[in-house]
Amino acid sequence: MANRLNMAKTQPTAYHALLGLEKYLETTQISKSQKDLIKIRASQINGCAFCINMHTKEARSHGETEQRIYLLNAWREVDNLFSEEEKAILALTEEVTHISAHGVSDTVYQKAQALLGDVALAQVLMVIIAINAWNRMSISLQTQPE
Known about the structure:
- This protein is an all-alpha fold.
- It has a single domain (30-140), classed as Up-down Bundle (AhpD-like).
- It is 72% helix and 0% strand.
- It has eight helices and no strands.
- Helix 2 (12-25) packs antiparallel against helix 8, helix 3 packs antiparallel against helix 4 and helix 6 crosses helix 8.
- The longest helix has 35 residues, at 106-140.
């Protein structure tokens, strides 16, 4: 692969603005486990090797099990590994990540809102938006896993 630019060096203000969003996300009520699931699942959908590698390592360090990480892309197929709240978050993650296909359905949105409430729902949306931005930057720049 050809060397592509380093966003942190080429446009540090923009890069640090995205890091600022990450700092905000650290202050939310969304658990590390929930954030990890969002980041891994969106990265799987987007095919971002750098982010999948990074966020699965982080998830393990936060206590996430190998089984849940391995089955994350098939979460709908398992009944007892993911809570109803996690399933709502994962469904929302998938629809926001695939937003150009059909938007976010009322069913998925309303279920997430009912389980999370408005504040947590807004915070989950910001986690989803942030990881999709990171995925797009990493894929565009062909950032390689460490």
